[in-house]
Automatic annotation (TrEMBL):
GO terms for cellular component: L-cysteine desulfurase complex; mitochondrion. This is Protein ISD11. CDD domains: Complex1_LYR_LYRM4. Belongs to the complex I LYR family. GO terms for biological process: iron-sulfur cluster assembly. It comes from Trametes pubescens (White-rot fungus). Residues 9-64 form the Complex 1 LYR protein domain. It holds the Pfam family Complex1_LYR. The lineage of its organism: Eukaryota, Fungi, Dikarya, Basidiomycota, Agaricomycotina.
């Protein structure tokens, strides 16, 4: 039987997933993964079963690795900024 993860390790995993989700260059992907991470961790918040917590932690750790790789690929092939994203002002742009 696997030992249950500590509250601190779960919080570290949660913050790592949020940080990685914020690193997507695509607005839609970025906001989708932030929402998904928050809702996933909200569901397990009141869980006390050690085996379920250990399984949850292992699955999310694997998911974090996939999320990091996906964010790197998304940064490499990121497209144009959407209208809803904050645009740089004219004097801050580097394309002049």
């Amino acid at each position: 039987m696997a030992s249950p993860p500590t509250k601190q390790s779960l919080l570290h995993l949660y913050h790592s997933m949020l940080r990685t989700s914020q690193s997507f260059s695509s607005y839609n992907f970025r906001h989708y993964f932030v929402r998904r991470t928050k809702s996933t961790f909200r569901e397990i918040q009141s869980e006390t079963d050690p085996s379920k917590l250990a399984a949850f932690y292992d699955e999310r750790a694997k998911e974090l690795a996939v999320l990091k790789r996906s964010a790197i690929v998304n940064q490499l092939y990121g497209g144009w900024k959407l209208v809803v994203e904050k645009q740089k002002t004219e004097h801050e742009r580097s394309d002049n």
